[in-house]
Design brief:
The complex is a heterodimer of chains A (about 1050) and B (about 140). In chain A, about 25% of the residues lie in helices and about 25% in strands. By secondary structure, chain A is of the alpha/beta class. Chain A folds into seven domains: about 1-115 and about 200-215 and about 380-460, FAD/NAD(P)-binding domain, CATH 3.50.50.60; about 115-195, Alpha-Beta Plaits (2-Layer Sandwich); about 215-380, 3-Layer(bba) Sandwich (FAD/NAD(P)-binding domain), CATH 3.50.50.60; about 470-600, Rossmann fold; about 610-725 and about 885-960, FAD/NAD(P)-binding domain (3-Layer(bba) Sandwich); about 740-885, FAD/NAD(P)-binding domain; about 965-1025, Alpha-Beta Plaits, CATH 3.30.70. The radius of gyration of chain A is 30 Å and the shape is globular. The chains are: A alpha/beta (about 1050), B alpha/beta (about 140).
Chain lengths: ~1050, ~140
Amino acid sequence: MATAHSLDPLNPRVLEPTPSTVGAVLVIGGGIGGVQAALDLADSGYKVYLVEQSSAIGGVMAMLDKTFPTNDCSMCILSPKLVAAGRHRNIELMTLTDVLGVEGEPGHMTARLRNRARYVDLAECTGCGDCLQKCPVKLPNEFEGGLSQRKAIYRLYAQAVPNAPMIDRDNCLKLTKDKCGACAKNCRVGAIDYSQQDEEIEVRVGSVVVAAGSKIAPTRLRSEYGHGRYPNVVTSLQFERILSASGPYLGHIKRPADGKEPKKVAWLQCVGSRDESIEKGYCSAMCCMYAVKEAVIAKEHTPRIEPTVFYMDMRSYGKDFDRYVERAEERYGVRLVRARVPEVREDPETHDLIMRYATEDGMHAELFDMVVLSCGLVPPQQLVELSRRLEMDLDRFGFAAGNLWDPTGSSRPGFSVAGSFHAPMAIPETVTEASGAAASAGGMLAEARGTMAAELEPAAETDVRGEPPRVGAFICHCGVNIGGVVDVPAVVEYARTQPFVAHAEENLYSCSGDTQQKIKDTIRQHRLNRVMVASCSPRTHEPLFQATLAEAGLNPHLFAMANIRDQCSWVHAAEKGKATEKAKELVRGAIARVVRQAPLPRVKLSVTKSALVVGGGIAGMSAALSIADQGFEVSLVERESELGGNARQIWRSAEGEDIQARLTEMVGRVSSHPRIDVHTGATIEKIDGFVGNYRTKVKAEAERQTSTPDLQIEHGVVVVATGAEYRTPTEYCYGGSERIITQRELEELIAHRSDAAKEAESVVMIQCVGSRESERPWCSRVCCTEAVKNAVALKELDPNLDVFVLYRDIRTYGLREEYYRRARELGVVFIRYASAASPGASDPDSTPEVKIEDGKPVVTVRDKVIDREIRFRPGLLVLSSGIVPRPDASELAKMLKVPLNADGFFLEAHMKLRPVDFATEGVFMAGLAQFPKFIDESVAQARAAAGRAATVLSREFLESEVTVAHVDPQRCAACRMCETLCAYHAIEVRVVDENSGQEAAVVNEALCKGCGACAANCRCSAIDVRGVTNEGIFREIAALLT
Amino acid sequence: MAEFEPRIVGFLCNWCTYAGADLAGTSRMQYPPNMRPIRVMCSGSVDSVYILRALLEGADGVFIGGCHPGDCHYVSGNYKARRRMVAFKSILRSVGLDQDRVWLRWISAAEGRKFADTVTEMTRAIADKGPSEFRELWEV
């Protein structure tokens, strides 16, 4: 029997191979975290039981209208994942299911589950919704925040997966009083079954991922804001529903009290967060951003709305977050007021809300039409109980305590955690942790991979060759995203008039699970052999629809999309008529193109089951370890002669851990791992190939000591973990005195000299040095916590030492707020300044000034609260200098053909849902190369990259893109132009007919990338690219211009 | 000519400019609705015939968007597009046609603003030129 090893993440719980290790994972929680973990595990050869206590997966993300910072429609990006989880062969979806307990050791556990009766047969239900019509019971709809009503038989939300409704047994007349039965009478397929009973089920699993989420803070904790008493005070989640096109008010912003459109709307931040008085001392990490987002979206919906956000510190610490807030202020006129509002009162006549608050310029009283409470996240009681049943430890707030080096680990062996069950966090961090938890779980069960999961095989395909085209056109409303601008019914009518269109219809969300089913049914019913979807971008949604086609037996290439959202309704919002015209033309173009599409065969390619990790810092090493622990070979390339990266200059974490000791252990484990090849003092010279089959040339750095000669590595995936750099300050007289140092130099001083505090005499720290300014507009994310950490360390060395921190916003987000509180308790003084350097700053500039007098720094700053200038003559001036991308990141980016963002950090495929992927398949990222972050975040991201890598490396074959060039030898003049042009040497002229000796160009399909350079330059028009043929494009051009 | 609404066909490379156009969308950057995008894998795949076809079918302008030099997903497709554009424009010039109706621009996946601005600028420029002379040329 396998035994669990210690909890030590550097010596992970590797199982001895035993035949009984179970290749299945229990994933608890069907929100975005659980769904992501389930998909990654299912794609890497594990069977997954995805357990969700409500009647559908989707979690809180399904309730959101839009997401920051891209303003993507939440349902639109979530839905493809839900659909994928719902139909994945290796995922068993278990809704309405509670976890009673899990017994056993890692590798072989038994989970006891209770499946509550739905009273609707999932196999029979078509999701038509007829049953809902006749139910006489009306109850507040919890999903809509009580702002609308639902029936006793109801669907959690319109696009729910699974789409079958459930019966609320506490309120159903049939189940409580044996009366009514209307739903059963109305169901045409006999899916209603009142006799269903709860069942206890046992499943055998090897490990468990807990992604059970959290809830928003109950508003009764802050009853002085009047939620529940004053109808026009709503929670942020209620406001999301108000904004949503499928919400209670169908996307019209109205006051719950009287249905009037509000003008002045206020957001109150930190409700149930950063508030020790109610034992919620932590920051909820996301509310600043979602409040600003809600304000922006409200303004977008209804331009006359005047939004105001009342906040303590603006914590826009993520990638592109500061830019977003800036845009909210400048473009949308969102008013940001730094004030904590003590209470809200209502005018009982008008239901308007009165607030009194103090700012730096005095007391104010203001009337608002509506107030939104930005509620924080709390672990709900039922999850605390679940943790108890699962024998997992929680921290004092009730979150599943993680640790710095094992952020996805838990106190119970075999159990991984992810998302806001672990700590308050937003969607990208949740998705990252979920992929990381999947990697941890996969690492534990590596030997049992594939024992319980099926290899993914495509469905049998209908041969449509020779048939006249029959096109199905599906036009999406995308809630109000498209429907609010484009006249969708008119576009549908128009599509009907197009040649070969056999069916046209509109969908509220074409990407939702029920619509996928509908598309499949329609394909069969109308014998469609081509499908055109007019909705969002093919870059994000084409794979979803293509999978649906495949399930319906159609070749995925018999498909085209018209992008009438991202490139139409969203960008022509003010010109509805013209946008509708453009949408019609785009639909016409896509139909013309799809008519010409032909089925393409899929080609199987083998996979080199090893990874290349570029960068040997904490992220790179963690990724390498996690990939290797999952059973794959890793080559780790580091350009320095030593592993460790930036962490070599970090001595102590804010949590109090000795970084160097742990780093040494990690380096030791990496160096001695049998599946990791370390190449230090080496750089990447050239990367060739594609997902599953890369070939990379590694060059030894001549000037560095190196153990590695030049070599060539073959690998299936790439992880970019090249890190970032601390910026050397150029401002505040840095370099002019040895008493002016950086935060990092201070840390070293504290680490090495016990008399550091005595030496210092007094300390002033300046935050945001070189960050959040026009040249480097991003927040470096870690500097506030670093400053607080060092301030606390100094205070602990000498409680009498004066420490002042000059800051703009303190961004100790999440559980890090504890350190900030500790610093204040110890007497560290925080003085705010404002900077005009940041473009969006509405405050008058009060940037500190630094001079050197007699070799000592003199700092002058204007304190805004007392409105006086303060002068310090500190013994030490410490500059919190930010993090900047590596200047040579672009070289690697070019070799890999992946993008950087405007600031020079690597750009992920999708900010929310693909945080460690590049748009290019098989390339992943982790650590500071993506954006500044803490060690635990780097480790989580590295594991996520490893988890995503496993979805490729665990396969025997990959189905390759068949969009390759194709030569018509009859037209080819063998001029060799294509040979000269091809960047991949994938085409060459040779004898194609031995008898006649005729020469023609021949394509090597394994090498061809389908770029079309040869076709575009062929003088004889002999070359075409399959899937994007010249003829198809000509048709599209003609159709667009008709 | 105040009423004139130019019709522009845009060939957008999948990896950079098309993604930049999507970003303009998610960022809700507004621009005139005169350009009809066609997604192509690479600016290097835009055959001169595509451009001619578009002009002959009645486009008042043709836009080609690719990755910045050095950033091509297919190594050098954008360079090929650039070279081809020089040749193509010289042909237009030599037969006395307006070469400024065809634009080639580099817009990355991160440049939503640049995409919106470029479309706005091109729409205005083509509107100023008036309807394409190609149409009349080919109305026999």
